[in-house]
Amino acid sequence: MKNLLILYGGQGFEDFASFSSFNYVASNINSFNLNSFNMIDILISENNIWSFKGKECYLIKEGSDVFLKSDDFSCKIDIAWAMIPGKGSEDGSLHGLFESFNLPYIGSSVAASVLAYDKLLSNLMVHHCGFKVPEFASYNENFDYCYYSKFLTCEKLIIKPNNSGSSLGISIAFDDFSFKKGIDIALKYSQSLIIQKFIEKKHEILCSVLQSGNEYKAFGIEAVYDDLIFSRECKYEKGKKKFEFPEIIHKVESLALDIFKILKCKDLARLDFVVDQNDEIYFIEINTMPGMSSNSSFIKAMENKGMNSEDFVNFILKDKL
Fold first, then answer.
1. pLDDT (tens digit, 9 = 90+) per residue, 195-232?
2. What is the per-residue pLDDT across 96-150, written as a single tens digit (0 to 9) for each?
3. What total number of domains does the chain contain?
4. Which CATH number goes with the domain that contains 72?
5. What DSSP character marks residue 199?
6. Coil, strand, or helix at residue 312?
7. Distance from the Cα of residue 113 to its chain's centroid
């Protein structure tokens, strides 16, 4: 039996998503195969303190093995899974720690995580590879709404933290006042911002991608909501959204698989797209450690194609045996 280290919590603004993901996976992991994995869960505080059953702990390498230790506990770790969106994990930090210990882990490599977590870099890479992305620019405090509106040839601008997820700090600007307000909000979550052209969308498609060895699967779903953007409230409050499955999803799934491979992602990710009124598909962003609650788009998309929670955990872990 292998010891699977699962980490949750974290230092960023997205710990609520981490707790939901942990609860979802933990409730299903033992039903996967009781003889394969022993789950050891570690809570990471906002101060980056690791704790196991209420006691502070740490990883240490001894010879070729990696151990989790506390004052009165020691356990060999075989594989790690950091279920922490955002800063301190999804940005490649924890995966860098695992790689330095030569510890196998679930998720994308450090390089792929860093690229995906930076919206400016990932949009630039995807665009360079021939895919459509909304016109975008990096925020510079010397330029105002009028400049970006002319540069991106649109009246509505989307302002986003460049290094954040869960729709934190996102807003739409349509004049100088809303632009300044949006910048102030976004800067609370990241010192680097991306300004994107607003696409008058026909569909917003969120695509879950899974990889195990040479096997890849994609599951698309449309998020339908009343607001102009898929805000944090739309994502997490009941009754604010519904999910649908338009025919164009199949084309988006194919694009999602291509981009997942181009960015050299691994194991799992969620890729977000918008489809405009002419059915042109635009890549928006990628999340290499998406939220995995039972009501999340990541899970609902898989369930629509018959992949339940046990199937999901099975697929992720089967090549780790």
1. 999 999 889 999 999 999 999 999 999 988 666 666 55
2. 999 999 999 999 999 999 999 999 999 999 999 999 999 999 999 999 999 999 9
3. 3
4. 3.40.50.20
5. P
6. helix
7. 10
